[in-house]
Amino acid sequence: MDHHVTLIPGDGIGPEVAAATRLVMDAADVGIQWTECAAGARALETHGALLPETTLDAIRSSRVAIKGPITTPVGTGFRSVNVALRQDLDLFAAVRPAKAHPGVPIRHKTVDLVIIRENTEDLYRGIEFERGSEGAQGLREKLRALGGFELPMDAGITVKPISVSGTERIVRFAFEYAKANGRKKITVGHKANVLRYSDGLFLQTIEREEPFIRGSVDYEAVEIDHLTSRLVKDPGGFDVLLLPNLYGDIMSDLCAGLVGGLGLIPGANIGWEYAVFEPVHGSAPDIAGQGKANPIAMILSGALMLRHLGEHAAAENVEWAVDVVLGDGRVRTPDLGGTSTTMEVGEAIAAAVSHWEHGPS
Ligand code: NAI
Ligand code: MG
What we know:
alpha/beta; Isopropylmalate Dehydrogenase; Rossmann fold; 3 domains; binds 1,4-dihydronicotinamide adenine dinucleotide
């Protein structure tokens, strides 16, 4: 059966890792029909918008997309395209597996974690008031009237909403995911003792739901600062991490560091109707255009996409091929100590995919 997929190459190293990923997906040979669409800095030049409506329409029509990273200009008026996509398509769950690969040395005996990050609420909801703006001034007055809070005149403000409904759907998703994927434990990270009405509500809602949905999955809740320290010391003690939006973002990069870097961590953004797959890393302007980017994070995102499309054998094939190439060690990008280019890694993995009929050894 043919699968329609929207491909967004993105900015920086995006087009390079996207080309390598497409090569591997085509080698997996499951009849993907690609529609390539623009988003990000290039789209601003060609379409006059960071996230053109035609791109959103393409995703709504194909329902499945895979994207490269997109540069977010810092401290300007632009809303992050990634945040906009997650909110406009209601992609409420981010799933980010971080596991050790053969031939990639890590500091610990073993790492095999999955981060499930709430993707639409929290400080990333996008409710912000610029320092000195009318909105910030109005909010200062409101806060004074409502609770006697005095904010400095020169404060910028970002709001952190976390809801019962938003938490209910992510906790159900997390336990369903754990059960469907043979995972043993869910650890929730929070700061409920300080952020009583946001993280506090997150934790309360989870603890109300969890006894009814956990099945045989273990459950624990740990304060996020303490969790960070435990994770760095002993990642083997964790399985699935369920986190609100901001902590999920930070912990994803931390987990990347545990298994050999950002070049290896794939991601899925899932909602009821749509799914957008993307590597965890950003557009890496420091190495863009040089053929140095590791395409494996995006290729593994492609494997997650294949599984989502019901192409389980092809997904396994791609993951196996990645491990064959990493284990062999001859073809790898500079972030893993090699000298190969992005496309050489893509070609080696695509070639391994085509040898799948010889089976995993
Ligand atoms: P980054 O992830 O782009 O880069 C951090 C470091 O990791 C850099 O040294 C980079 O060279 C390296 N790196 C990242 N991916 C790599 C790969 N595939 N192979 C080899 N090395 C890799 O993070 P940074 O520099 O903070 O962000 C750059 C831009 O990307 C920003 O505009 C940011 O907003 C955006 N960004 C976009 C994301 C997305 O589209 N989902 C996610 C994260 C950041
Ligand atoms: Mg991030």
